Amino acid sequence: MREKLQKLHTSFSFRCYNLVSEIYERVIEIIKRNNGLIKDNELYEELKKEYDIGFEDFNRILMVLELRRFIYVETIKRNHRLIQLLKNAGGGI
User: pTM to 2 decimals?
Assistant: First the structure.
């Protein structure tokens, strides 16, 4: 029983990792398609069409990509942010 649970957990973790990686790559693609700049609400709406994602998860994705220096997030107004693709974002995630 324990071995089955470990296999299930490993399989689930692997699938989750692949999904998260796929979402990161999709975010980069969407920003590239918009000439390297997009408002956060536009990006969020695009992602919601393809993935079951909440706003908290969306913010976490932006934070990770910004910490990895793929994007730069700038506040332009209260509750409005501009997301810019950085030049080194052409490589893999």
Answer: 0.77
pLDDT in tens for each of the 93 residues of the chain?
Answer: 445 444 444 444 445 667 778 899 999 999 999 999 999 999 999 999 999 889 999 999 999 999 999 999 999 998 899 999 997 665 555
Domain positions in the chain: 2-90
CATH code 1.20.120.450 for 2-90:
no
Q: Which two tokens stand for residue 86?
A: 């950085």
Among 76, 62, 78, 80, which residue's Cα sits nearest to residue 23? Answer: 62
